[in-house]
Amino acid sequence: MLAKLTAKNQLTLPKAVTAAVGAAEYFDVQTCDGAIVLTPVRIQRGDALRAKLAGLDLTADDVGAAVAWARGRVAEAPGSYSSARTKKPHKAGKRKS
Prior knowledge:
Number of strands: 2
Radius of gyration: 23 Å
Shape: elongated
Distance between the termini: 63 Å
Largest sheet: 2 strands, antiparallel
Structural class: alpha+beta
């Protein structure tokens, strides 16, 4: 089967190929001896979230502080949310002692 590479470096895979490997939105792309190898990757949303959280290097104290902050926000009057948007967001890991 042939697939044409467009001027924008895009490649459309033939339907028979994608049907043979199953539905996948993402592919791992590697080269091997001058060949392009595509491997379907099925990303679980939970796995992606866990990987992102792991990269943030959060501690149990960070999580506790976030929960306490969120609970305090729920207790405030509904109209108070607009004033919070003008404040600078808290940066993880940059706490004042």
